[in-house]
Records
---
Amino acid sequence: MATMTAAQKREQARTAYDAFLRACPTNQLLDRLSDKWVSLVLAALSSGPMRYSDLSRKIAGVSPKMLTQTLRALERDGLVTRTVTPSVPVRVDYELTELGGSLAQLMTAVKTWAETHFDEVHAAREQYDAGNAAAS
Amino acid sequence: MATMTAAQKREQARTAYDAFLRACPTNQLLDRLSDKWVSLVLAALSSGPMRYSDLSRKIAGVSPKMLTQTLRALERDGLVTRTVTPSVPVRVDYELTELGGSLAQLMTAVKTWAETHFDEVHAAREQYDAGNAAAS
DNA sequence: TGAGGTAGGCACCTTCAGGTAACTACTTCC
DNA sequence: GGAAGTAGTTACCTGAAGGTGCCTACCTCA
């Protein structure tokens, strides 16, 4: 029975995890929030509504595919609104909803934490790296 | 000059992005925080110190590799402490530092947001999906 | 008149994060 | 004496996220 220990345990653990953590709606939202581009788009939009091309310029490193994908996800979750103005060249504006705004505030709080404690983290890193190098 | 438009622009954009956003220390910390396992480990440790195997059981879905990797990263950033007790089988305890605790509180705030607004998000999703299906 | 901008969609292709499995050294329990 | 647990490390491999290029359709400006 030695052959099934690892596999079986893994299987059991996975099942337990699915039931215990994966099914938790909070976790699903957390996953969404931890997306790389979501925070950037949220930050960009927190200074007011923007058009698609404005966003792609402001965030710069984002590919059109990812930008569209991220915006669709945020729109689906009711965090941003997508307003199409059927003018001469079709113009599309994206804007934070109230819900999105409240989330953006939270992200700002996290950002503030990062800014406040960055020096501590940085010091810890240097100390860790130095200790690591010396220990060898 | 038509051949360089896309490539050149992309290059420029990438450079601008690197200088403008990637170099921002806050962004680096944000990246760390948005890690999938970091939040889970933080949540697990917020209820008190735990041993390696305790963590691997509690979080379940995590592989030993990812757990070690996550813990090392957190330790390096001064968010958790790693205490080795050279007892009979080497025993290792992980515990949140003060810094880690403050971050865990922030994550809890985000979690609270997610719990509070989950129904709104869920409603938005259903509406979006329904509208999408009907529109076709 | 054709090049460029606006708002993406589609398909391919690469990369790398993360999973899996196997191994270590030491000890204790059966 | 060997199987199992503790705390990992290492090498290998896959799958999915994300990047890139190419396409549309319409309009305007040089």
---
Amino acid sequence: MGASSTATRPRGVAREENERLILEAAEAVFAELGFKGATTGAIAARAALPKANVHYYFPSKDDLYRAVMARVLDRWLAAASSFDDSDDPADALTRYIAAKMELSRTMPLGSRIFASEIMRGAPAIADHLETTLAAWVADRGAIVRRWIAEGKLAPVDPKVLFMMIWATTQHYADFARQIEVLNGGRPLSDDEFAEATRQVARTILRGVLL
Amino acid sequence: MGASSTATRPRGVAREENERLILEAAEAVFAELGFKGATTGAIAARAALPKANVHYYFPSKDDLYRAVMARVLDRWLAAASSFDDSDDPADALTRYIAAKMELSRTMPLGSRIFASEIMRGAPAIADHLETTLAAWVADRGAIVRRWIAEGKLAPVDPKVLFMMIWATTQHYADFARQIEVLNGGRPLSDDEFAEATRQVARTILRGVLL
DNA sequence: TATGGGCCTGACCGTTTGGTCAACATTGGC
DNA sequence: GCCAATGTTGACCAAACGGTCAGGCCCATA
């Protein structure tokens, strides 16, 4: 199984480059049109590649979709770890909310794909929800309950708290269009977004902190 | 233009019945598969009607989709009026949150269609957002600002507050599948949902009330 | 420069889709 | 019992779809 078993090797350059190109194009198209609405032709066009080439790297549309979802879930897992950077509830929640808001700001497409996936019944990520996500919630839920027992937090179902954080932060990605309209037709500027982040964090903290 | 200008009239009975049947079927199919994923054939099958009959009442898929969206927006506007039932911020917010949660509980499909529509860029309801919704937010935003001036509410951008309410309450409809998984594979019972409603309202009120 | 494997793609195919249409059924008024 | 409007439907079509494939290209090695 060593690197010597195959003859040539430094060829994988084009492969990595094109896979990245296709994944980025697919992320945009899936986010805007949904799974069924997205076409491999549209993804190929956006990646400036022939359709057959897309099918060379990702045999089926479903394979490509799952690869895109995997990338999204990886990013989210990384952001979720910011919850563990502190054992102080105010710190931990502030950091986590900020990290999720930052993701909604810089990578809104993934959030939209995730939302569509859940609304379809989560056929492609059911196992991820049941294993990884459930475990994360169980672990952090225990921390939240400890904070409550220590008198640091108002008694609140950890699931309700996490759901509020997810809902609100992801809303800034999923409903960006609605927010833009209510902001006078202009997307939130960096400053406006930073201010929204601060207010969201402050409101949630006031809501659960003792 | 009187009712006498056309000859016969009491015939519209089948029309109303079938239109309702089709709209309900369409709501379910659009919610689950998205605009592009939904097929007129699937909608017809769910309504137990031939596809051609669906096209008799709604000439195009787009017409049908817009009719479904109009129904959803009507319901939401009705729920939104519960915000005006009281001039006390605690009352008004509690009622509004409860009304939105109730909608998420009893009519989650509409919420999902709305979410998909926004994520597509809101092509079918752009004008509704710019007129009706913007006006609602402007009016109620003024009320919120008055409450803040009166020292009843913490200083918060009304848009941030409304967005948190929409995001959290609609999350219970849009992400019902995720909630179900985190609830041990079982959807929230009536009691669990009522408890979630109470905790959401309490947390948001604590977050903004003085 | 011959060879072989990774890479690339135009042309093609079976299926599904939104939508049409001609023909048929039903109904209430005269 | 006839008529005309309303309602109903199987059969059909052009377009778009996901996916296939034979053949060509490029390049490191021998």
---
Amino acid sequence: MAQDREGPPAKRFKAAPPGTQPQSAAPPAHVQRRSLPISGARGPLLARLRRLDTAILIGETGSGKTTQLPQYLYEAGIGHPGVIAVTQPRRVAAVTLAARVAEEKRTELGKLVGYTVRFDDCSCAETRLRFLTDGMLLREAIGDPLLHKYSVAILDEAHERTIHTDVLFGVVKAAQKKRKERGLRPLKVIVMSATMDVDMFSQYFNGAPVIYLEGRQHPIDIFYTKERQSDYLQAALVSIFQIHQEAPACQDILVFLTGQEEIEAMTKTCRDVAQHLPEGCPRMTVLPLYASLPHSQQLRAFKPTPEGGRKVILSTNIAETSITIAGIKFVVDTGMVKAKKYSPETGLEVLAVQQVSKAQAWQRTGRAGRQESGICYRLYTEEDFEKFEEMTTPEIQRCNLASVVLQLLALKIPNVLTFDFMSKPSPDAIQAAIDQLDLLGAVTQKEGQLVLTPLGKKMAAFPLDPKFSKAILLSPQFHCAEEILTIVSLLSVDSVLHNPPAQRDEVQAARKKFISSEGDHLTLLNVYRAYKNVNGHKGWCRENFINGRNMKLMAEVRAQLRDICVKLSMPLESCRGDTAGVRRCLAHSLFMNAAELRPDGSYGTVGSQQLVAIHPSSVLFQCKPACVVYTGLLRTSRCYMRDLCPVDAEWLLEAAPEYFRRRLRSAKS
DNA sequence: GAGCACTGC
């Protein structure tokens, strides 16, 4: 048995998972408003908030805080005549919340109530309640650090600690202070969160009071295993079938696993086992769920359970916050997650399976009690659970900070090393980011202070990693702006190349015609040109194993980047066949990611002489160019360079003479 | 000769 069901008494608790997910929780509209838990507290809540500059609002799932509070504030005239901003970590949430609130106010979406997300602005001068993504408000702040148009900033889902929310904390705190000092209209800041991190939020915002809101979450029973499980997959399998044979039909199971491959394998195993069950067992429908799964297949997880059957959903952490499935009675938590780590010394990103935090485990557990009471099986011992980290490390402590530092400098933060972060990244990580920006020519010292150069200011206008912004800004010098725009856009979305392992030979045959001996970037450029030639025809995409969805997204990104170029009055030319210009431009912007062939046939990075290899997915896999630049490193079984472009060592010397003089092997000889 | 969790501007 994977877990102990008769042993020590189950812990019964009232789960308070974060994250109201409006897109599928969707209670009926305005008729429901008055019966939400928050409505009983309206009067006292408004009285308190009216007096406060800053408040931390803790609300359980189902409290109605996200939809109701902005309306209450507006109806009470708090913040009038400014705009009330409500930020969300995800686009869908911003859009669906705005739609719902507009419906409750019985107004047209985009007028009084609106939303603003990337590629989609549904708001106007009349808009008073504005839902936006946290990243969008941050971008606005670059143009207007004091956020003049807003009178209230509500930062929702703050416990998720996205990199954007974390930077916004500092931005709104500073804006509030400065507006006060200058006698401007005050900025009210309301931080909304689930139960974790309460003290930290309050402390950060100068001891701001914490207001608790009742929620409406059903009780969930939690079971731990008696003994530590050596194989969480085996334990999960046993648990699934144990539940399946004991629980009534129509009670669905959600299982948290770590990744696509694991989920696909487990899906197959479960389906096989399910075929050999004794008679009288409910029919089992096993459904995988992960982000890269085609949308149509994701939707299957939402279909109601067939009469007399049972749905078993095998999911990544996408089901923790982004996707909510109704009717889950059982959650099986393996306690594992695949997550990214970053080490500033090597610039290496590592994607590794690791233990979840306590907060994450509670989040998973909460997915069981959304419509009625639920049960959660934790495939680890209670003792081990106690040893889990309290919180997941905030994203800002796990990332390359080059973009963040560039944004902070664009916000005219006087000293990025002492910026008021709620959770400070390591000084090494900040310094590494400054060094990168320095090499790109984005920053300079002025009167002992780090400031942006004119180039740096332009770079900050692009929603991109600084090295890509630099590529775009340099491209006119090489007469290839159109091509670089395409390449950078392709690199900033998920891969447009679809690689189903089962059809490997067909994929290779179809891809042949796009391959350029000048590397992966130019191969991608060929794909885009061919795609444009057939006007993005769907059948063509299918035949050529091109991901049409990502291609469309890429086109949107490209249009946005092109707009920014036009606003910066950049001359946009195409080099047509002269692809050397494109490679030179890439050499001048990716020079920090350069590697040289060594006499023994291996590759070493020019920066730190680290041993690296060409990723087998690269078109240059079988080739041995003397000198390459790459988009990034990926650490798996070895350290791989991804997206390669062969370059001349002289180009690198041209790009950053000081940096390369001592480093480049070919320059020494 | 490999394989990538999830967001967002």
---
Amino acid sequence: MKPPSEKSAGRRKSGPSFEPLQPHEIELADFFVRMAGILGVPRSVAEIYALLYVSSGPLDFDHIQGRLGMSKGSVSQGLKFLRDHEMVLSVKEKGARRERWQPTPSLAASLVALLRSQVLPALEQAQPGLQRVLADAQQRGAQPEVIERLSRLNRWNSRALELAPLLLPPPGS
Amino acid sequence: MKPPSEKSAGRRKSGPSFEPLQPHEIELADFFVRMAGILGVPRSVAEIYALLYVSSGPLDFDHIQGRLGMSKGSVSQGLKFLRDHEMVLSVKEKGARRERWQPTPSLAASLVALLRSQVLPALEQAQPGLQRVLADAQQRGAQPEVIERLSRLNRWNSRALELAPLLLPPPGS
DNA sequence: CTGATGTTTCAATAATTTTTGAACTGAGGC
DNA sequence: GCCTCAGTTCAAAAATTATTGAAACATCAG
């Protein structure tokens, strides 16, 4: 579909060029892309993570960009996302100019951090609103069935908020 | 942004018109929309569910369309989605022509069904691919660190698949 | 069977999200 | 200070996803 025009990737200035992904790398990337999709994480982010995950050592910015054939902007934003969610950490050797990236040791912890950042704010923000909706229904003398539903929703929300810090401990514990 | 042109909703032929959502209904809808967003469920679907959730009795197609001011197509697709995921069930009174909808008793069960349908297929489909990626890495004599990562990923996947039927029992148990 | 009603389908359109890349910033090195 | 390198920002373009609505289909009453 796309014309085979030189994308910015593939060759940087007159610098080194990078080989495209190998079949086994593509397969893993597909898996991560799919899983990420469920959580609403963009493809490019999943691809970066997958590449770091199958790579032997940490990779620098240009390697990531080159091997994935993706724009600087995407690599920068993707790494920012992964950093923010503690899914990736940088290893800057002393004297070196550029940062090199590798996946955080525990993928489980990474996923937890990701879920946290998505679900918790929603629950927190919803709390007062849900209470108001329930109070409103009671005041209006709504059907018992509706009141019951809204009560249950409130209880759930509260319990989830109480449990959250236990199940999904904040960074550093 | 949109011109205030008569959308198909609001008035059907010369039929009854429906009042727009009340503030308390909007608040609940916002909550469901947010939560749905995390799972990648479209806004229109969440809105339908929210409306049924705060309503006293089952609602028919036209009521849903009218109160939400949304197209027939969206209502139809939205109900299909909710039906497919067992989040909603229809109550057709004998002799009545139209179906009337209400939320499934357990929201918990509904969410479980939803997750099931998203996560399980991904895990299943990934299984052989992941095994291949690992075998490949072993054969190529990849770094022990990489092998270890890929092994862990495989173990996870397998365990998740084993546990799935226990934690997320298929419909009818 | 026929007409009316209720629902689904799906191509076109609209809205949203993601990606790109060029301009910009900041940190060293000289 | 000035230049280069490393990375960020963000407006515009591309890609994706959701919604619309008209036409097709289905079902039931008469």
